[in-house]
Structure formats: structure tokens, C-alpha cells
Design brief:
This protein is an alpha/beta fold. The protein has one domain (6-307): Rossmann fold (3-Layer(aba) Sandwich). 29% of the residues lie in helices and 22% in strands. It has helices spanning 6-10, 61-71, 87-90, 98-114, 133-140, 179-189, 210-221, 256-261, 266-278, 304-307; strands spanning 31-33, 36-39, 51-58, 76-80, 120-129, 149-153, 159-160, 173-174, 194-199, 226-232, 235-243, 246-251. The strands form two sheets. It has a ten-stranded mixed sheet, with helices on both faces. Strand 11 and strand 12 form a beta hairpin. Helix 2 packs across helix 9 (266-278) and helix 5 packs across helix 6 (179-189).
Length: 309
């Protein structure tokens, strides 16, 4: 993936507003799919019976798309941006039927874009950055039978435990709010699902940070992270848990740029974890690149204080 050079930074690009070297690249232009926008490989990226591996991403879809088109083997991307605050993402999925309806709209778009009536979702991942976790946690409340993977890019916040001091300890945090995600993590630990949760050390003060929520999650699972030191562009990974389908990665950083930099981790997550596990069918990259502007391609994500919770 193209790095953020000093020259690009001088032009105004940064972790919250990365450059866009490929546009849509080997993908077709965005098309509508329910509340989101879908991009399908121009050629390939599907099994013989037209099964596609799909990742649905909530919040910050434009910068995630810029990363994904550079590295994806063949996954279909659906981006959903509904505004700031986790409530904007949880509210559309309060009904049990909301996500199944959305899934059907995605499969209908796959059929239209591919021109194949048998086109369908082969594997499905839900992904979120920052406030987008509100959608995933709400969706998981109604079951996860048709969800194969969850990716949380600095994107999971529990709630405070009533009556406890907010002292930064696990006992101060309530697991009740994120219970569906914890259940999904247990399945990942058994190798039945994939969960990748990356976190920074940004402290939002008024609600538990992603790092504190990660500590809570691992405590619930009876796990602890190992110390590592792995440079990752703007970020440095300092701790990790990698067991079966569960991956919890801690990255140094306490500010907005560190928070936004987690978007770039989609490259590693796709290449090393999700598409590798799924053996995603390869799309043909030797096609004329689609460089037309994408949906919200120029709009950088909002700041940490506005969209975290």
C-alpha cells in the first residue's frame, strides 16, 4: 500500500484524509445497496457459482475504500456512512428484521452489478471504525449465524459499571452493553468466527476507551496480551493476542491522527487474516482502472470527539 510520504503530507494529506492513488481501481463504480454503497470487482472475485466475499463497513467508508482498493484480493466492499455518534449507526438496526433486509439489498445489488441471477454472499464480514461499532453491536444482538467475521478499527466502547469509580480499571466497566460482541469473540477463540479488534490509547474521558474495553474483553475471555514492537507506518503495535480466529492488537497513540491511522490497518487485516482465511477468489487487476470520483471520496472523517460514541 502506498505510504504517506512527507511530500504528501505537505499537500495536506494525513491519517484522517489519506491520498487516493487508485480511485476505484479494479472495481466498478459505486452502486446503491440499501443504506450503503457497493463496489464489485469489474472481473473475477467470485467462485464458479458467483459467490462473493463481502465486507460491510460502517463509518469512515471513504478512507477505508482508499486503502482497500490497493490491497484487496477480491472482496466486495459496502460502505455505510450515517453521520457522527454511535447512535446514528445503532438506531437503523433496532428491529430484528433490519439487518436481514439490508443483507438482501446487498445480494440484490450483487445480482445487478454482476449481471448474474445466481450471485450471492459467500462470506460476510462486518467492519467499523470509531462510532460505527454501534451498528455491529446492535446487529449481533439478534444473532450472528450469517456473519463470518467482525473487524473493529479502534471501535468498541463498553459502558461504565453503575456505582463504580471511573478509575481506568476493568471493574469500573460494564460488559453488559457489549455482551453480543463478547459472545462473538468467544466463537472466534474457538475458531468458528473471525474477530479482529485494534485499539489505540485515546482517552475520551466521558466513556470507556477502546483500550479499557479491550482489557475488559480479554478479562471476560481469560486472556492477556503479549508485548510486541511492530512498526506499522504512523502506528507501532505494542501488544497482541492472536489465538485461533481472535486477534486483539494494541497500538501506541493518544490523539486524533492515531485514531484515524487505524483505518490503514484494514490492509493487514484483509491480507493476513480475512481474505487469507476465506481463500477469497482473486479479481482481475489487469483491467482499466476506474478513476472516477467515488461516493464521499473527498470527505475526511470527523474528529475523535464527535464520532467516537
Amino acid at each position: 500500500m502506498a505510504p504517506l510520504t512527507a511530500e504528501l503530507r505537505k499537500k495536506g494529506y494525513h491519517e484522517c484524509n489519506p491520498p487516493d492513488p487508485l480511485g476505484m481501481g479494479p472495481y466498478m463504480p459505486f452502486a446503491r445497496a440499501g443504506m450503503g454503497h457497493i463496489m464489485v470487482p469489474q472481473r473475477g472475485g467470485h467462485s464458479p457459482d458467483y459467490g462473493y466475499d463481502v465486507i460491510v463497513h460502517f463509518h469512515g467508508a471513504a478512507p477505508v475504500r482508499k486503502t482497500l482498493v490497493q490491497v484487496a484480493r477480491g472482496v466486495v466492499f459496502v460502505g455505510v456512512d450515517l453521520g457522527n455518534g454511535s447512535g446514528k449507526y445503532s438506531e437503523p438496526f433496532l428491529r430484528r428484521e433490519s439487518f436481514p433486509e439490508f443483507r438482501r439489498s446487498i445480494e440484490a445489488a450483487l445480482k445487478r452489478q454482476s449481471g448474474q441471477s445466481q450471485a450471492h454472499i459467500r462470506h460476510l464480514a462486518l467492519s467499523a471504525w470509531s462510532a460505527g461499532y454501534g451498528a455491529i453491536n446492535e446487529i449481533l444482538k439478534f444473532g450472528d449465524q450469517n456473519i463470518d467475521a467482525v473487524v473493529l478499527l479502534d471501535a468498541l466502547h463498553a459502558g461504565w459499571e453503575p456505582g463504580q469509580r471511573h478509575d481506568g480499571t476493568v471493574k469500573s466497566v460494564s460488559a453488559a452493553f457489549i455482551a453480543p460482541t463478547i459472545d462473538f469473540a468467544r466463537q472466534a477463540l474457538r475458531g468458528e468466527k473471525i474477530l479482529v479488534f485494534t485499539h489505540s490509547y485515546v482517552d475520551p474521558v466521558t466513556y470507556p476507551s477502546t483500550s479499557l474495553t479491550a482489557n475488559l474483553l480479554l478479562s471476560e475471555l481469560g486472556l492477556s496480551q503479549e508485548e510486541v514492537s511492530i512498526p506499522a507506518g504512523f502506528l507501532t503495535q505494542v501488544k497482541a493476542v492472536d489465538q485461533a480466529g481472535l486477534h486483539v492488537w494494541s497500538y501506541r497513540g493518544h490523539d486524533e491522527l492515531a485514531h484515524c491511522a487505524h483505518i490503514s490497518l484494514m490492509a493487514r487485516i484483509l491480507s493476513d487474516v480475512v481474505e487469507e482465511a476465506w481463500d477469497t477468489p482473486e479479481m482481475d487487476r489487469d483491467v482499466p482502472a476506474v478513476t472516477s470520483p467515488a461516493v464521499n471520496a473527498s470527505a475526511p472523517p470527523a474528529g475523535v470527539a464527535k464520532n467516537e460514541h
